[in-house]
Prior knowledge:
Blueprint: H1 7-10, H2 23-43, H3 46-62, H4 69-95, H5 100-113, H6 119-136, H7 142-165, H8 173-194, H9 207-213, H10 221-251, H11 253-278, H12 284-296, H13 307-326, H14 330-337, H15 349-361, H16 368-390, H17 396-405, H18 410-437, H19 440-457, H20 463-480, H21 485-509, H22 518-541, H23 548-574, H24 583-608, H25 621-647, H26 657-665, H27 674-696, H28 704-710
Helix pairs in contact: 2-3, 2-7, 2-19, 3-4, 3-6, 3-7, 4-6, 4-7, 5-6, 5-16, 6-17, 8-9, 8-10, 8-11, 10-11, 10-13, 10-24, 11-12, 11-13, 12-13, 16-17, 16-21, 17-21, 18-20, 18-21, 19-20, 22-23, 22-24, 22-25, 23-24, 24-27, 25-26, 25-27, 26-27
Amino acid sequence: MPAPIAWNKLVQFGPFRWEGLALWRAARVAVGVVVPLGLGWVSGHIQYGAYAALGALPAGVTSFQGETRSRVIVVVLASLGMAVSTFIGATTAAAWPWMLVPVVAIWGFFTGLSACLGPAPNIAVLQWSIALLIAVGLPSGPREAAVRAGLVLAGGLLQAALVAASWALRPGATERMALATSYRALAGYATDLAAGRSDPPPPTAFPASTTLEDPNPLLPMAVRLVLLNLLEEAERIRASLAALADLAKDDGTAVANQLRPLMADAASALNLVVAVLSAERAQRPALVRALSHAVDKLTVAGGAPWRWAGEALLGQLRAVARIVAIVDSRANRADQASAAIAPPIDHGLGGIRAAISTLRANAGATGEAGRHALRLAAIATLSEVMVQTTGLYQGRWVTLTIFLVLKPDYASTMFRGVQRAAGTVMGAGIGVVAGLAHIGQAGWITVASLSVAAAYALFDVSYLLFSVFLTIFVVMLLDLLGMPAIATAEARLLDTAIGATLALTAYFIWPTWLGATAQEKFARLLEAHGEYTAALLRELARPGGVGATQLRLFQVTARRARSETEAATARLSDEPSHPPLTPGLARLLIATVARLAHAELALHALALSRHRPANPVAASDATDERIDALGTALRTTLGGLAAAVANLQQPQPFAALRPIYSALAAQPALRDSPLLGIADRLVDTVNTLDAVLRERLPQPVQSADSRNRLL
Length: 711
């Protein structure tokens, strides 16, 4: 192993994120588990209620993923897979126990491979393996297994129905709150600028982006379009604020002082937008009037070098004030009443084909998901062979622990996996104490209900606490199915320790270090920013040639690449070092690309403001050619730097950017244009990236033939 394990981190069970406490969500999902359990008890068929609860329990965890339609889809996917797995697990354990070895291998491989599809599908598929292994402990014939599978499916579909039923509760409220959170972030950014801080905005997309991609199906199309307009204006406002910050940073203290009052007023206006979006219907008219009054008072001093960006910001704030004013107007409500339901996002055949293609592309041992799938299948198979050979009591918990602990990355396996194991041990211990209390069946159901509600509420607070309460519930539920709580808890204690040890051993025998492949993410980052910069300059040279929609797509791609790279940098910090792409170099690249992104946002704001009366870029053929030449040179250079990062070697020589910029700056049409200042920062940042890579990466290794030719 390249470096020692950070053992001190393994016992850091925090932090506890109490802001993630989700009481309403916990109540909704707990109902899906408690209702079938209670119905089974009242009807005298507690075992049937327990089987349905076993389907509802993991489906409830899955329902935390996605937004609306996507959330229901992932719950249904998990429920169908759990039903099939329950039948196969129960019948195979009863008739051909050794056949569980290849079954576990197949389930392990597909569970590991599903990591390439993203968190939601991966969590759904993981529930299949959990259902398989729980069913193994309750072997039965085909008829009884089919009944159990049907009950598991019913419990899962109950969770899907509860999710769908929640759509009828205040449709549009979730979308409004997501937009309010987005505008609150803008207000915070404007407040920072007013205080003299000019850092670039974070690369993450607004929370409303995900929500409005998958909106409430009961939300009328007219309302959805209004909310989408507000989201688009938020993107424009972020670009204008970044442009003003960029100008303040470049032009010194005097400009920064001029901008501070405007930024403070803009922050106040944005906070009013938040208030409008968050308020109840009766309170909105007064808040809308206050917003309109605040926006009308905003002005930009004439002759300021940042006037174009300030005017763009004021125009966007006025547009927002007009949009929020019509959301609840009587005429708009009439339109909404006859509006069509918003069309669903594509989760049909196109999405299935894309998922199959992704799985096929990652099935080999070259990618992280493929290697994880092979590793998980191998160690789960070994575990099952050991259980079958030794006859270990309730040995399925060994294999189940491997599925829960072994993850594709180091941090999740070491830290979250250890938390899961520790939580299981603690929960099993509490289950033993409860087993000694002899509280009766009604008491079992009551404590189990409280435990599952607590587990769901604490899911985003602490994975350790979630694991503790989830284990308590499982121990009690299995006791209702005839497995004594004390024996089950004791088996879980031993089997969890064995499974966690096997999982960690498997990871260190065949690790998947991100540091070995992270250069691919950094290469995509530089390529994406090269394409985005070139598109912005092309749009400035020939307005309409790219278009606002296409520019937004380039921006989203670059932003996503930057977010993924920042996440990769955080993972690198948890792993042993892998020179030359060390955590220090990764952080330096991220910081430099943040400067590049800041300048790109300013350029984007300039492109969007070109139709205003004070057009900052005067068109001429010669100017267009110079702008195009700079865009092409920047894209080519960033592409070369991306290749250098991908190969972890110093960049090849490229044409100097500064002379190309100088030729552009010499154009009379661009005299006093803000484009020159932004382009200067772009060139300077790309040159900095080149210098960093030449300093930190090794020189290319020349072959003997190459050296002979040089001689």
